Amino acid sequence: MTPGAGDHSDDLPASERLRQDAHAERRAPICRWCGVTALPGAAVGLAVDFACDNPDCPAVGERVR
Ligand SMILES: [Zn+2]
Q1: Is residue 13 part of a domain?
Q2: Residue 52 lies in a domain
Q3: 3 state DSSP class of 17
Q4: What is the pLDDT of residues 15-33, one digit of tens each?
C-alpha cells in the first residue's frame, strides 16, 4: 500500500479484480435512450442479446447493443 493512498474502494486483491473482470467479459450495454444498463434478452423473455427493461424508457423491450 502506497503511503497516502487512502482509497478504500481499492481494497480488493488484484487477483479478485481480474476474476470479476473475466465475469464481466460480456458486458451489458447501456440503453442509449435512458442510460440504464440493459438486461440480457433471456431475462426479459426476448430473443435478443440485450434489451432495455426500463418501463419509463421509450425503447423498453427493444434491443440494446
Ligand atoms: Zn432504455
Answers
A1: no
A2: yes
A3: helix
A4: 877 666 555 546 889 999 9
Total domains, the chain: 1
User: Among all chains, which residue has been given the C-alpha cell 440494446?
Assistant: 64
Q: How far is the CA of 42 from the centre of ligand 1 (A)?
A: 16
Interacting residues of 46 by C-beta distance below 8 A, sequence separation 6+: 61, 63
Q: Find the 31 Cα to ligand 1 centroid distance in Å.
A: 5
Domain extent, residue 40, equals 28-65
Note the pTM of the prediction, 2 decimals. 0.57
Ligand 1 centroid, distance to 8 Cα (angstroms)? 32
In this structure, is residue 51 part of a structural domain?
yes
